Amino acid sequence: MPYIRLFNPENDIMLQWPAERTIASAHTLSPNVEALRRAGAMLPVWWSSPGDAVIVHDDDSLYSRKWLDEMSALFPFLSHVSIVSATDTGKPGAPWGWSGDAARRLSRAGAECPSIAQLERMRMLSHRCTSLMVMEYLKQNSTIPLPLLPTEATTVEEVQLAVASSPNGFYIKSPWSSSGRGVVRFDTISEKVLQRIGGMIRRQGSVMVEQALNGIQDFAMLYHIADGKAQWKGYSLFFNSHSSYSGNLLCDDATIEHRLVSAGADRKTLIAIRHCVANALSEIIGRDYTGWLGVDMLLDRDGMIAPCIEVNLRMTMGVVAHFLAERILAPDTEAVYSVEPHSPREKNNSPTIVDGRLIAGELMLTPPGGAFDFKISVTERKR
Questions:
Q1: Which InterPro entries match (predicted)?
Q2: Considering the entire predicted model, what is its pTM?
Q3: Dihedral angle, C-alpha 366, 367, 371, 373, nearest 10 °
Q4: Residue 158 has what DSSP assignment?
Q5: CATH number of 215-381: 1.20.120, 1.25.40, 3.40.50, 3.30.470?
Q6: Rounded distance, CA 383 to CA 380, Å?
Q7: Contact criterion met (CB below 8 Å) for 155 and 322
Q8: d(CA 159, CA 179)
Q9: Residues contacting residue 83 through CB under 8 Å, at least 6 positions apart
Q10: From the first residue on, what is the mean pLDDT of each consecutive set of 10 residues in the chain (383 residues)?
Q11: Rounded to an integer, what distance in angstroms lies between the CA atom of residue 170 and that of residue 150?
């Protein structure tokens, strides 16, 4: 089924307001977020299917079409994707993430969208307490070793009680936040800390309190939900810079699993987590959501895996990396997918593409001229 696709990386920000409010009128974005959205508008072509259309800024339409034609000559599967036009009216919408704001923009382009009630249900499932529900499910239905479960606190007094059992520090997380914002680590409680936490509670009604772990490797498991059932689709091995997303390793899932096991993870536990988390997602989310999602996890220095740090109920950069590795990376090749502020490109690192597969160099994934670079850099070719 063809879709109208929208890259709206600001979606996590929009979720802090009820869907009824954000579907009614546009909210002003920071210049940085607006620049990221515009620079990455064409990113959805890489996971699109035949007949899909992508929404871009009106001023970028002709330029984007020219770039898409050029890329289609290198990667033929892109020739079946287009820039949204009036003929696309009636196709279902497929944003990066659902919110009232996403529905407003997609409806304006002629796409079919969920009802306000459905959007609000998805918004509530995007609350960080969903990760707590997944952890509680695992505690009741599996023998997987688990860290101390997070706590939702609606007052600073509840926060003080929760952190009493976290001698190594703790994280305070806003229910809805984006790119590391709204996630703060504290080592001790002070009056100043309590004032800051109180402000977070006043803005969004509660905070999540989590024990700080001795993590050595961030990773995620990727799932797709359809017809009420979640299916495991792969791993995501990602890295952050100052709590914000920086990039992903591009390789096959067997290689990522081998790296996790080499770092201390137990392979049988990883496989058990795959299935148990899928069951939890089907039970908790399956009736109300269709699409991709990522479950952030953490491997600690003792080999324990925290199997649900966060549920990202939307497309993720890990899912993007999964598609890129599957669709355009040559076999037995490793690369890094990254998103970073634009910088001049090295002329001696042009991409080498053979039979629609990237085997060397650096490939830009969006039209040039944007404030951010979305790119793949090949790091290793094994043959």
A1: ATP-grasp
A2: 0.95
A3: 40
A4: H
A5: 3.30.470
A6: 9
A7: no
A8: 23
A9: 53, 54, 56, 61, 64, 65, 68
A10: 96 93 87 95 97 93 95 97 88 97 95 97 97 98 95 95 82 84 87 92 94 94 98 95 82 96 98 98 98 98 96 97 97 95 81 96 95 95 76
A11: 10
The two three-digit tokens of residue 17, written as one number: 């307001």
358 within 8 A of 329, measured Cβ to Cβ? yes
Are the CB atoms for 209 and 163 separated by under 8 Å? yes
CA distance 216 to 125: 28
Give long-range contacts, CB 8 A cutoff, 24+ apart: 264-269. Answer: 264/216, 264/299, 264/301, 264/302, 264/303, 265/299, 265/303, 265/305, 266/303, 266/305, 269/144, 269/145, 269/305
Residue 337 tokens, joined: 């997918």
Q: For domain 148-211, give the fold.
A: Dna Ligase; domain 1 (3.30.1490)
Q: How far apart are CA 158 and CA 152, in angstroms?
A: 8
Length of the chain: 383
Rounded CA separation 116/19 (Å): 6
**Hey, what are 198's tokens?**
């109180």
